[in-house]
TrEMBL record:
The protein's name in its UniProt record: Carbohydrate ABC transporter permease
Pfam families: BPD_transp_1 (PF00528)
Compartment(s): Cell membrane
Highest taxon above the source species: Bacteria
InterPro entries hit by this protein: MetI-like, MetI-like_sf
Keywords of this entry: Cell membrane, Membrane, Transmembrane, Transmembrane helix, Transport
Domain ABC transmembrane type-1: 73-273
Transmembrane stretches, start-end: 12-37, 76-97, 109-128, 140-160, 181-203, 252-273
Annotated source species: Paenibacillus roseopurpureus
GO biological process terms on file: transmembrane transport
Major location (coarse): membrane
Membrane topology summary: Multi-pass membrane protein
Family, as annotated: Belongs to the binding-protein-dependent transport system permease family.
Length: 288
């Protein structure tokens, strides 16, 4: 009886704590979404908190009537798609090479990968490299310097090593070369891990911010995160100056609408790949 009572109290305590933590995390999100739809009178009165008296789409119409938002969206989609493809291509191929025992130079490559996790060139040398290669004010500057993540590479390498060697040997006996083994056998067996790291890379590319500040100075090449920064710091008057609309919403309303539009695609993508998270991160972690 004491054991059951203790377990019940423990479970109840956990439920209360997790409920409070969930409310603390969810309420700001609801507030941001509601402020983006709130009419001007609710925002001006200061009595509005979580649910507006009516839904007003003027902030979204105001943003959609400008060309700069869709240009920033186009840049972000390009960086996300091209960057994620390059990330997966370079990471998986290098991880596969480093996972093969018969490749004599794999220890050297692994040392070079791990070394970058401990020591980096620094901000200024990296900037000089990007500038000397002619990538300044180019979207390629947002995808090439971050083409490979050392941590993700090591995890994917462990995943590849968990694939039984007998499968690789059978394919070799059947006449399949290394490229065929990699494309026809290793990659299909690694879908959970690839789905997980596709999401990780896609989120990182979608949220490109610091590199964009350093390497991109042209407003026509701004990704969404830089547009959001400019809207928050400078205000809508300068950023959305060419809006073809008679109704100009309050700055806070357009700021919240920009936040929602910037975050919505990644939030929508999460549920479709959520089932791969645990499996993709744990299959390659323990070898037995």
């Amino acid at each position: 009886m004491k054991s059951k009572l203790g377990n019940g109290l423990f479970d109840g305590f956990n439920i209360i704590i997790l409920t409070i933590a969930t409310i603390i995390c969810v309420l700001p999100i609801i507030n941001v979404i509601a402020m983006s739809f709130a009419p001007m009178k609710d925002l001006v009165s200061g009595k509005f908190l979580l649910w507006p008296s009516s839904f007003d789409l003027s902030a979204y119409r105001f943003i959609f009537n400008t060309g700069i938002f869709f240009q920033a969206l186009k840049n972000t989609v390009w960086v996300t798609v091209v960057g994620t493809v390059l990330n997966l291509a370079f990471t998986t191929t290098l991880a596969y090479v480093c996972s093969r025992q018969r490749f004599s130079a794999r220890r050297v490559l692994l040392f070079m990968v791990v070394f970058t996790m401990l020591f980096s060139g620094g901000l200024i040398p990296t900037y000089l490299v990007v500038k000397s290669t002619g990538l300044m004010n180019s979207l390629w500057a947002l995808v090439i310097p971050t083409a490979v993540s050392a941590f993700n590479l090591l995890v994917i390498r462990e995943f590849f090593e968990s694939i039984h060697e007998s499968i690789i040997e059978s394919a070799t006996i059947d006449g399949c070369n290394d490229l065929g083994i990699f494309i026809r056998i290793v990659l299909p067996l690694s879908i959970p891990a690839l789905a997980t790291f596709t999401l990780f890379y896609a989120v990182g590319n979608w949220n490109q911010y610091f590199n964009a500040i350093l390497y991109v100075n042209k407003p026509s090449l701004w990704p969404l995160q830089i547009l959001l920064r400019q809207v928050v710091l400078i205000g809508q008057a300068d950023i959305y100056a060419n809006a073809n609309t008679e109704i100009i919403p309050l700055p806070v309303s357009s700021q919240m609408a920009t936040v929602v539009l910037t975050s919505a695609p990644i939030v929508i993508l999460y549920p479709f790949l959520q089932k791969y998270f645990v499996k993709g991160l744990t299959l390659g972690a323990v070898k037995g």
